[in-house]
Design goal:
single chain; about 140 residues; alpha+beta; GIY-YIG endonuclease; 4 helices
C-alpha cells in the first residue's frame, strides 16, 4: 500500500500541477528557480518536500511576484515570514523544496472540483491534502 505522502504529489499531478521549479540556497540567502510559468497570474502553487505537500496557495498576481514575497517578506506579513523561515531552515539542512504550479484552466483535468473558482479549488485541495504549513504561522 502506498503512503499518504506518496499520494500527495500524485494527486497534484493527476489534477494537472507540474513541477515548475525549486527553492535553493545561494551564499547564505535563498532564491527560487522557476522554469515556468514566470509571468502567469491566477495560479495555484504548492511547495513540496519529497512526495509531501507542505503548503498550497493561490495568487491572482504574477507568480514571480508572489514568490518574491516569501523571499523578502515585509515584517508585517506573518505568513510570508513563517514560510521564509521554514524554507530557509530546510535549505540549510540540505533538503530540496520543490515548487509545483497549476495554471492550465482550459484543461479538463480540474473537472470534478466543486468550483472553478481559484479560492474554492485552493480550499478544496487544502482540505484534501492538509498541508502542515497552511493555517499555521508557527515555525
Amino acid at each position: 500500500m502506498k503512503s499518504q505522502q506518496t499520494d500527495q504529489v500524485q494527486i497534484l499531478e493527476r489534477i494537472g500541477f507540474r513541477r515548475a521549479g525549486q527553492w535553493r540556497a545561494e551564499q547564505e540567502r535563498f532564491m527560487y528557480e522557476l522554469v515556468s510559468p514566470r509571468n502567469r497570474s491566477g495560479v495555484l502553487y504548492a511547495f513540496t518536500i519529497g512526495q509531501s505537500v507542505m503548503y498550497l496557495g493561490k495568487t491572482e498576481r504574477l507568480l514571480v511576484e508572489r514568490l518574491q514575497n516569501y523571499k523578502t517578506p515585509d515584517p508585517s506579513q506573518r505568513t510570508n515570514m513563517a514560510q521564509k523561515k521554514r524554507i530557509s531552515d530546510l535549505l540549510a539542512r540540505g533538503q530540496d523544496v520543490a515548487i509545483w504550479v497549476f495554471d492550465d484552466w482550459d484543461s479538463s483535468s480540474h473537472v470534478g472540483f466543486p468550483t472553478k473558482d481559484l479560492a474554492g479549488i485552493e480550499a478544496h485541495l487544502i482540505g484534501l491534502l492538509n498541508p502542515p504549513w497552511n493555517g499555521s504561522t508557527k515555525t
